[in-house]
Amino acid sequence: MIEAVLAVHIAIILFNVFGLVAVPVGALCNLRFVHIRWWRVLHVLSLAAVAAQALAGQACFLTIWQDELAALEQPTAPLIVRWINQVVYWQLPIWIFAALYVLVFVYAIALLWLVPPCGLRSEVR
């Protein structure tokens, strides 16, 4: 079960990071998918949730679930789980994460303005 929570967490992380890179690169390369409204809204909402949790001084609920499951399972997790945990989970104060997540969220909002999804800012063009 811990592996399933970790897999979902990694998928969300990859989705968020992909969007932050794909939108500006896709705009430069005239790729249409970066203008898909539902995808862009989902991306910004995902980043907003992460930033809000950090601002509230809370860890991501997936991190909490994984910690709780790890406490229930065997003390030695599989090697790949331990390796991924080292990459994903950094031992830093929550305020550092909050600052980083808010900056990333602001960047994503700026991308909404700079590379608008279909229907947004269309009257300006």
Features:
71% helix, mainly alpha, 125 residues
Structure description:
With 125 residues, this protein is mostly helical. The protein has one domain. 71% of the residues lie in helices and 0% in strands. The protein contains five helices and no strands. It has helices at 2-28, 37-55, 61-72, 79-88, 94-114. Helix 1 packs across helix 2 and helix 1 (2-28) runs antiparallel to helix 3. The longest helix has 27 residues, at 2-28. The chain is elongated, with a radius of gyration of 17 Å. The mean pLDDT is 84.
Order of helices and strands: HHHHH
Strand tally is: 0
What percent of residues adopt helix (DSSP H or I)? Answer: over 70%
Number of helices: 5
Structural class: mainly alpha
In short:
With 125 residues, the chain is mostly helical.
SSE topology:
Blueprint: H1 2-28, H2 37-55, H3 61-72, H4 79-88, H5 94-114
Helix pairs in contact: 1-2, 1-3, 1-5, 2-5
